[in-house]
Amino acid sequence: MKNFLRILPIIILIIGFSTKLNSAEKVEYLKTNWSFKGPFGKFDRGALQRGYQVYTEVCASCHSMKYLSYRNLAEKGGPEFSEAQAKAIAASFEVKDGPNADGEMFTRPGKLSDKFVMPYDNVKAAQAANGGAYPPDMSVLVKARGGGVDYIYSLLQGYEDPPSGVTLDDGVYYNKYMYGNKIKMPNQLSDGLVEYADGTKATVEQMSKDVTTFLMWSAEPHLESRHQMGFKAIVYLIILTILVYFSMKRIWSRIETEV
Amino acid sequence: MSENKIKRRDFLFTATYAVGAVGVGATVWPMIDQMNPDASVKALASTEVDVSSVSPGKTITVLWRGKPVFIRRRTQEEIQEAKAVKMEELKHPEKDEDRAKNPEWLVMLGVCTHLGCVPLDQKGDYNGWFCPCHGSHYDISGRIRKGPAPTNMEIPEYNFVNSNTIKIG
Amino acid sequence: MSEHEYIPKSKFGKWFNDRLPLLTLANHLTDYPTPKNLNYWWTFGGILTFCLITQIVTGLVLAMHYIAHADMAFDSVEHIMRDVNYGWLIRYIHANGASMFFLAVYIHIFRSLFYGSYKAPREIIWIIGIIIYLLMMAAAFLGYVLPWGQMSFWGATVITNLFSAIPLVGEGIVTWLWGGYSVDNPTLTRFFTLHYLIPFLILGLVVLHIWALHVPGNNNPVGIDIQKPSKDTVPFHPYIVIKDGFALLMFMIVFAFFVFYTPNILGHADNYIEANPLVTPAHIVPEWYLLPFYAILRSVPDKLLGVVAMLSAILILAALPWLDTSKIRSAVFRPLYRQFYWILVADVLILGYVGAMPAEGLYLLIARVATAYYFIHFLVILPILGFKEKTIPVPLSITDPVLGGSPNLALAKKNKFEN
Predict the structure, then answer these.
(1) Partner residues linked to B73 by β-bridges
(2) In this prediction, what percent of chain A has a pLDDT beyond 90?
(3) Could you point out which of A132, A157, C12, C100 has its C-alpha 20 to 30 Å from the C-alpha of A120?
C-alpha cells in the first residue's frame, strides 16, 4: 500500500493533466437544473408534456422519433398523458397501413400501438428536403451526443451572428455550441412560438429546457424505474455486505487469524 | 461456548442466508420475466376488423395475437340449428346465445382445443368445423361434438364498434 | 489436494460416487486447503467467476431478443431497451459487466505480478490465464460490434484492418473476415456467432485454470511453499467462501452504481448513432480496457510493426515465468522489484491515458517512451533483477515468524528439521 502512495502523484498528475487539456478544448455549456439528475432524479411531468408539444409543433416537421410509440406517452415514468389523451394524440396522425384485402396501402388514424409518424419516408428523402443534411432521428439523440442534455439545451440557445472573419455558406448557420460552430439547422425557437396548454410562458429558455427533458425521456424511458431500483439494490447490497462481514468475522474467529 | 452465544451465531447466519436468498430471488425474476410478452406485443393485443364485405354463410379468418380468429356470418338456418341443440347432447354445455352476442356473427378463436391445430371450415359431421389433426368435430356454434378435444372453441373478448367493425381484444 | 480418501456417508451417495465421483470432487473443493494469509487481492478469482457467469446469463437473455442483421441490430437493441421486460437492466448489466470483468481481470493479473504467482510451479496456470485474457479481449471486441452503432462499425473496420498488415495474404484475410468488401451484414452475423461461442471457451479454460491451480495450491502473500493441509491452511469452505463472498458484495456495490446511475459513462456516445459506412466519427477510440494496447499500436510508425508490437505486448506475458529469473516469488521480499513493479503499473496507466488521446505531438512522444519502457521492463529489467537484487530473508512458514524459508518445499522441510 505504501508503494501505492508513491504512484499516487503520477495518477493525480495524469488526471490533472487530462482535465486541464479537456477544458481547454471544451466549451462551457449553459447550466440549468435538471430534475432527473442524481440518484433520486425524476422527470418533471409538466416539462415532458410541454416538451412533447414543442417537439410536435416545432421539431417534428423535420426530425423523426422512430423508436417512440404513442402508447409511450401514457406510460408510467413518461409524460403520463391520460390514456384518452394519448389516444386522441395518436388519432390526430394519419398512419400508413396495409396492404388491405385489395392489396393497396391506405391511411387510417393512428392507434396507441403505432410508432411516431415520421416526417420523411426515408433518409434520402429527408436529405433531399433539407439541403443534403439529414435531420437526425431524435429518439436517442441525447445519448448520442457527448455533452448530453446540456449540449442539446445549449445548442438550441446558441445561435449567434458569426464573428467577423467567419463566412457562412448558404443554408449554414453559426452556433457557438455546435462542433465546428457551423450548423445546417436554422434557429427554430423564438419567444412565444408555442402556446403552452398549462399557461407556462414559452420563452426560448423554457422551450429548450422542456424539449430537452422530453428528449432525455425518449432516450432513457426507464430512467425513473432505474433510479428507484438502483436505490433499493444498493441499500440491499449494503445490508447484505454488513451481515456477511459479521458472519465472516464470526467464522474466522474459530481460528486465531486476522481476516 | 455458552448457549446464548450459539443462539446469536445461529441468528446471524440465518439472517445472512435469508437476506441472501431474497437477493437471489430478486435477481432471478427479471431473467424470467424478460420472456413474457413485451410492451410492444401487449400493445398489439387488440385489432379492429371491417366485416362489411362478409356475406351470410361466409367465414373470414383474421390474425389476432398471432392466432387465427374465425368470423362467420351465419345464415338463419344455421342460427336455428345452433339454438336447437339440447344441452345434454354436449360434451361442454354452452348455450349458443352465450357464445354469439349477436346471433348473426360468430367470433371465435380458430384453434382446436385439443392440441392447437386450425380446424377446417364447413367440414365434419356437424356442419361446422373439423380438425384434421386428430379428428375433432365442432358444430356451427364451435362446440365440440365428437373427437378428442375437451372443450368448445374459445370465444375471445370482442365487441362491435359499429355495425361494420368488430374490435377483438 | 486433500490427503484423505473421501467416503460418502449415505449408501446411495457411496453407490453414486463409485460410478461418478462428483461427491469426491465437491469434497475436494470444499476441503481444499488454502493458505490462511490470503489477502483481499486474492478474492478476484471468485469475483471473475461471478463476472463470467453474469455475462453468460445476461448474454443468453439478450440473445433471445437481439437480431443479428445489419438492418435490424440497432433497432433490436432499442427494442430491448424500451419494450422487453427489464431489458434495459439486463443490457446495462451486460454492457457494464464487460468493463467490470476487465477491471477485475487487471487487478487479478497485477496481483499475480506483485506476488510472483506466475513462477514455478504455476506456469501453466499463468499461461492459461493469458489465453483467457486474450479470449476476453476477443469477446469484448466482438460484442462491441453487435449494437451496430457508429463505434461498433468503425471499431470493427479498424481492428479487422489490422490483419491487412500481414504481408502478401493480409488483404485476403481481411476480405475473408468480412465476408465482403467492407464490414457488413455477413461480418455482423459471424461476429455474433463467435461472440456467443467464446464465453463457453473461456468457461472451459477457467475449469482448466482452477484445475491447474489445485495441483500446487494457491500462492500466498509471503510467496513460500507451504504444507497442505497444515496450520498454515484453512479449508476453502467456509473460510475462503465467506471472504470471497464479502469481497464480491463490495464489488457488486460498485457494479450496481455503474448499472443504475451512470450506465453509459464507460461507453461512447457515438455508439448511439446507427452505423453509417459513409461517415467516420471524429475521434475513434476503443473501450477503456483496450487503451494501453491501442497506445502501443499507434506509437509505432510502421503498420506491420505496430501490430507486431501490440501483439507482443500481450504475448510477452506468456514468457514471463522464464523472463523473471528471481527465485523469490513475493515482491514483499524484493525491495527493488517492488519499485519497478509500481513503475510498471504507472507505465500501463500512462499508456491507457495516451491511448485515449489523439496520436500527435506530446502524446505520441509519451506513448513511445511508455511503450519502450513496457518492453524494457519485461525483457531487460526482470532478467537482470533476478541476479542483482538483494532480497529480504523469507520466513519459513506463514504462522511461524521464523526466517530462512525458501520457495523450495523440500529445502524448507529440511531446514525445519535441522532447526
Answers:
(1) B58, B105
(2) 71
(3) A157
Domain boundaries, given as residue ranges, for chain C: 32-414
Angle at C101 between CA C294 and CA A149, to 5 degrees: 75
- The strand pairing partners of C89, in sequence order, are none
ipTM above 0.85, yes or no: yes
Confidence of residue C90 (pLDDT cuts 50, 70, 90): very high
pTM for the predicted model, two decimal places: 0.90
Write out chain C residues lying below 8 Å of B30, CB-based. 85-86, 89-90
In chain C, residues with a C-beta closer than 8 Å to the C-beta of B32 are none
A243:B15 CB<8 A: yes
Q: How close C180 gets to chain B, by Cα (Å)? A: 35
Dihedral sign for Cα C11, C15, C16, C18, please: positive
Tens-digit pLDDT profile for residues C316-340? 999 999 999 999 999 999 999 999 9
A71 contacts in B (CB within 8 Å)? Answer: 39, 43
State which amino acid sits at residue C260.
F
CB atoms within 10 A of CB C99: 19
Is residue B149 within 8 Å of B137, Cβ to Cβ? no
The helix or strand, by DSSP H or E, that contains position B59, with its residue range, turns out to be strand B58-64
Among all residues of chain B, which has the CA nearest to that of A69?
A: B40
Query: How far is it, in rounded angstroms, from Cα C282 to Cα A146?
Result: 12
**Which grid cell is B79?**
342460427
Domain spanning C32-414: CATH 1.20.58.1120: no
Cell numbers found for residue C199: 464465453
Interhelix angle C44-63/C87-115, rounded to 10 degrees, is: 150
Catalytic annotation on B137? no
Rounded to whole angstroms, the Cα distance separating C56 from A232 reads 24
Cross-chain Cβ contact B12/A112 below 8 Å: no
Taking the CA of residue C90 and the nearest CA in chain B, the distance in Å comes to 8
Q: Of C51, C18, C2, which Cα lies nearest the Cα of C244?
A: C51
Determine, for residues B34 and C83 on separate chains, whether the beta-carbon distance falls below 8 Å. Answer: no
pLDDT tens digits for A3-26?
555 556 655 665 555 554 444 456
| C-alpha cell, C85 | 421486460
Interchain pair A230, C246: CB under 8 A: no
Residue C40 burial (CB < 10 Å; 0-12/13-18/19+)?
middle
Residue A172 Cα to chain centre, angstroms? 25
Q: Which residues contact B104 (CB under 8 A, 6 or more apart)?
A: B56, B73, B74, B79
With beta carbons under 8 A apart, name residues in chain B contacting C86: 30, 33-34
DSSP B110: -
